[in-house]
Amino acid sequence: MFQSLELKSGGDVKFGGNQKGKIIGSGTIGNGNLPSISNVLLVEGLDHNLLSISQLSDNGYDITFNQKSCRAVSQKDGSILFTGKRKNNIYKINLSDLKTQNVKCLLSAHDEQWVWHRRLGHVSMRKISKLNKLNLVRGLPSLKFNSEVLCEACQKGKFSKPSFKSKNVVSSSRPLELLHIDLFGPVKTASIRGKKYGLVIVDDYSRWTWVKFLKHKDESHSVFFDFCNQIQNEKEFRIIKVRSDHGGEFENQFFEKYFKENGISHDFSCPRTPQQNGVVERKNRTL
């Protein structure tokens, strides 16, 4: 663990139980990216690495202890030299873990371009270079654009979902066996009577579509119930099932009571999955 070591003889170290250890050298410890500690004594026969709290304090570090851990913090810049965990009555420091922790802390300092990339909402490096060139952002440092480096978050954000396979088989066997319903609006331009919403109803078997215009969303249940009574008398078929999303205009006590009284099953598509009710969703886009 020594970066530099000078062997010397003479002198000893006295421990708490009046035992003595012979000093055979002194130097600086640290490995790679580890923070270095100078004037460390090498004691013959000592099986554990011991840190002198007073020596660390003299070198400008604040040492804090609590019930579970300890740490040494630099008084100059507030950087953490090491942290230790308490095991039984001894505070132990794993110096091999310090290398990994230190590398993580230094990443943002060396990759300042990625800090500004995140600050500016993951804008492209070419755009950051243009902002810097035109001096449009106060405090923006001079950054070099590297087109070969990729941002992991940007890559994941540009992933596209695989498309759902189209269904070539009609699930229903007769008209009004399954109805798809959805609501769109409010639209920018209202009708002459001030209606801004539209209730779209699609028959799964024939793909026949009805559109009922509404002034307010809370009219959807009354308009749909009138439609059900009318269309069942007209076609002499009973409605078996209705499919909608989890919108509040469909998932309420009015729909639940009407469907229960008339023996109609109410199916819901999964949240944030319009593909499950794609028959009526595609109709909404064309209207």
Q: Biggest sheet, open or closed, and with what strands and sense? A: 5 strands, mixed
Class inferred from helices and paired strands: alpha+beta
> Mean pLDDT, rounded to whole units?
82
**Helical content class:** 25-40%
- Tally the beta strands: 13
What spatial order of strands do you see in the largest sheet? Answer: 11-10-9-12-13
**CATH overall fold name of the largest domain:** Nucleotidyltransferase, domain 5
Unreliable sequence segments:
99-110
Shape: elongated
What is the tally of helical segments? Answer: 8
Number of domains: 3
Which CATH top level class of the largest domain fits? Alpha Beta
Q: What amount of the residues lies in strands?
A: 25-35%
Kindly, what is the distance between the CA atoms of the first and last residues, rounded to a whole number of angstroms? Answer: 73 Å
